[in-house]
Design a protein that fits this description.
This protein is of the alpha/beta class. 41% of the residues lie in helices and 15% in strands. The chain folds into three domains: 335 residues, Aminopeptidase (3-Layer(aba) Sandwich), CATH 3.40.630.10; 221 residues, Glucose Oxidase, domain 1 (3-Layer(bba) Sandwich); 186 residues, Transcription Elongation Factor S-II, Chain A (Up-down Bundle), CATH 1.20.930.40.
Length: 758
């Protein structure tokens, strides 16, 4: 029955691709008509191959046992993936690295006042879920890269534990100095919470999942529904990844066996205070015993208690002690050599390690990657050969801190800087809409791919389905109008949190991150319940969006690999940079206006009360008025970049005339070699202030957002932190980068003109 349904779906999918080919024979960016026709034929064959039933069986096998770093099943999975790659005709091998991977030895959370309560710190098995009972193999609930510590102190509730929450606490007259803070998951990456707590003098940190954000407030909890149950706990890394990702002991170099390593006391990315995750079942008694001011209304979760901030009378004992061991990780690497441009590399990656069984994170993405690899192996048997070299990667050690991808990228940095044209990433995958983030020179390209993939439920293209959803979600008539009128959908900028980080932000390789989601909820992230039972009951139960991801990412890989001219587009980059610069100027004006108004209120004796009149307030302090920042250097550089992008587009349009014959026959090798470097030109050798590992001047994870992106981060974060001198310096630094990119694009336009008129 499944086979019959699957075959019918393939016919429909082929019709979508065929219609696109018929409507726009020259519609492939960087292709002549002749090359595009051949490419579409191969892409049609490719898209017919990925099979949901195969992906289901891959997931069943990969998620059958816990496979965290250092576990026997992690290595077993890597070797099994390797055997599959080889069976499909790919040249594959495993590359092994040796990062620091601490595991917990002692974990204690107990309330010692006003009553005694000991947190369970464990997740119980669920009878309906067969793998949830594999306790002997499951990692305990902990936060990797927390420092060891043993502290007893009053407890203070800090909401999400982001910088704005501490500003609110200050207005309430509450200090966390010498206290243990308890924060709920959400609003930022987990590693930011102990970081900010330590900066404010806290001695320990607990992080729990409040049911308002991640539990019964959202819907039925597991096993009756997809949401986090009372005892569910989110494991995770608290490494300060905004400083650098990868092995904490070998920043900037691959963690090979003989690599020079830092001593533990030299590492800057460990937390400064001990931290543990707990369930909302364990959190409730601690929070219920708190007194002090009532928490502001928007701080109150969905537990059946009154939310107080503290401190007092709750006092907590927190103890964390780990085994600080080095463990092997196993990256599985498969290579398909290119024929015409073998020195230009297209890299595709997804990780295979998990915190526990990891069916959703990451196996749902890994099984799509495997079907892509199998499909490309089938095409090779039929005579297809890519023009550029394609490298498929199953990374290990992503969960602790992007270890496998970062160590491979650092180890192969010199080769990648010379050869890498594109990195395509995925991670978890679910039902719903196509989500795309990445380099904006790839925006036009990935829009073209999305127009050629069918959504399995609506039978629209995934591009059209996403466009309609964006129109519905638009917050203003202007936003809605732009979505309707703009030929391409905007893609988001990338921060961090998955394996693109080492490629994009450390090496300057143009990158994409792809995945489906948005329909269907879930709250088993990084718990023992993220397993085959949960995924096949509550997520992409028929694996049709797994097939859609394989079709999308695989088409992107093939289309970039086979293009006559590398399909970068710089007009979208210039347009996006214009928006970012406007945002910076607006942010600066807002900071100035708000400071002036706040100072005026202080001088006139007008104080803004909190939303609860019972809460004490402290008078705000007068602050220096921000100076006027001179954005002229960036404005001028952006004007040059915009003109260069237009010049390149004119040359490209000329090359595309008459069926783009010149693209098929002109000597484009030197130009393609040049274009490979386009994203590198957006980097700076000195990197960002205080975090030189991040060298991209346009995209970076925020110092206080973690996963969340900061665009033009050097300038933006200086403004947010009111460091006006640094803001001026960074404006000059970014202007220099934009001028360099403008000159680069102008040189590419000139080369393309020369190819047109030899």
């Amino acid at each position: 029955m499944r086979r019959a349904v699957f075959s019918a779906t393939l016919v429909i999918g082929s019709i979508v691709l065929g219609a696109a080919a018929g409507d726009s024979p020259t519609g492939l960016l960087g292709y002549s008509d002749e090359s595009a026709r051949a490419e579409r034929e191969w892409e049609g064959k490719f898209c017919a191959i990925p099979n949901p039933d195969n992906m289901r069986e891959y997931m069943r096998r990969l998620s059958a046992r816990p496979h965290n770093v250092g576990s026997p099943y992690d290595k077993d999975n890597a070797e099994w993936i390797l055997s599959k790659f080889k069976a499909w005709g790919l040249d594959a091998h495993i590359e092994t690295y040796y990062p620091l991977y601490p595991t917990p030895k002692e974990r204690v959370v107990e309330m010692v006042e006003p009553a005694h309560f000991t947190a369970k710190l464990e997740e119980p098995a669920v009878q309906a879920d067969p793998t949830s009972s594999q306790h002997d193999e499951q990692l305990p609930t902990y936060h990797i890269y927390s420092v060891d510590g043993d502290v007893t102190a009053p407890l203070v509730y800090v909401n999400y534990g982001v910088p704005e929450d501490y500003e609110q606490l200050e207005r309430l007259g509450v200090s966390v100095k010498g206290a243990i803070v308890i924060a709920r998951y959400g609003a930022s990456w987990r590693g930011i919470k102990p970081k900010v707590a330590a900066e404010h003098g806290a001695v320990g940190c607990l992080i729990y999942s409040d049911p308002r954000d991640d539990g019964y407030f959202q819907g039925d909890v597991f096993p009756d529904g997809p949401f986090r149950p009372r005892e569910g706990v989110q494991r995770g890394s608290v490494m300060d990844m905004p400083i650098y990702s990868g092995d904490p002991l070998t920043p900037g170099i691959g963690a090979t066996k003989d690599a020079k390593r830092l001593l533990l006391d030299q590492v800057k990315v460990f937390t400064k205070i001990p931290v543990l995750p707990i369930s909302y079942g364990d959190a409730q008694p601690l929070l219920a015993a708190l007194k002090g001011p009532m928490a502001p209304q928007n701080w109150r979760g969905a537990l059946p208690i009154s939310y107080h901030v503290g401190p007092g009378p709750t006092k907590v004992h927190l103890k964390v002690k780990s085994n600080w061991d080095i463990k092997p990780i196993y990256d599985v690497i498969a290579r398909i050599p290119g024929t015409t441009y073998p020195g230009e590399w297209i890299i595709r990656g997804n990780h295979h390690d998990a915190w526990v069984n990891g069916a959703d994170d990451p196996v749902s993405g890994q099984v799509a990657l495997m079907e892509e690899a199998r499909a490309l192996g089938e095409l090779l048997k039929q005579g297809w050969r890519p023009k550029r070299t394609i490298i498929y990667c199953a990374w290990d050690g992503e969960e602790p801190g992007l270890l496998g991808s970062t160590e491979w990228a650092e180890d192969h940095a010199a080769e990648l800087e010379q050869h890498a044209a594109l990195y395509v990433n995925s991670d978890s995958n679910g039902r719903g809409y196509l989500n795309v983030g990445g380099s904006h020179s790839l925006e036009k390209f990935i829009n073209g791919v999305a127009r050629d993939v069918q959504d399995p439920e609506t039978k629209l293209t995934v591009w059209e389905r996403d466009r309609l959803a964006r129109i519905e979600r638009a917050q203003s008539p202007e936003e809605k109008g732009e979505i309707r009128q703009r030929p391409d959908l905007r893609i988001s900028a990338l921060g961090s949190g998955s394996d693109y980080t080492g490629f994009l932000q450390h090496l300057g390789i143009a990158s994409l991150n792809l995945g489906y989601g948005g329909e269907g909820g879930g709250g088993v992230y990084h718990s023992i319940y993220d397993d085959f039972y949960w995924y096949t009951h509550f997520a992409d139960t028929q694996f049709v969006y797994g097939r859609a991801l394989a079709q999308t990412a695989g088409t992107a890989v093939m289309r970039f690999a086979d293009a006559d001219l590398l399909p970068y587009d710089f007009t979208a980059l210039a347009d996006t940079l214009r928006r970012y610069l406007d945002e910076l100027e607006t942010l600066t004006k807002k900071e100035r206006d708000e400071t002036i108004e706040r100072n005026r209120e202080i001088e006139e004796g007008v104080f803004t009360a909190t939303s609860d009149p019972r809460q004490p307030t402290l008078p705000p302090r007068v602050e220096p008025v921000p100076p006027y920042l001179n954005f002229a250097p960036m404005e001028n550089a952006l004007a040059s970049l915009t003109k260069s992008a237009e010049d390149y587009q004119k040359a490209f349009d000329q090359a595309s005339r008459n069926g783009g014959a010149v693209l098929a026959h002109a000597p484009l090798h030197p130009l393609n070699d040049l274009l490979v470097q386009s994203e590198r030109k957006l980097t700076t050798p000195e990197g960002l202030p205080r975090r030189p590992w991040y060298i991209h001047a346009i995209y970076a994870p925020g110092s206080y957002t973690g996963y969340g992106v900061k665009t033009i981060p050097g300038v933006r974060e200086a403004i947010e932190q009111k460091n006006w001198k640094e803001a001026e310096e960074q404006i000059g630094a970014v202007a220099k980068v934009l001028e360099g990119e403008a000159s680069f694009i102008e040189a590419a336009a000139h080369q393309l003109q020369q190819a047109l008129n030899p």
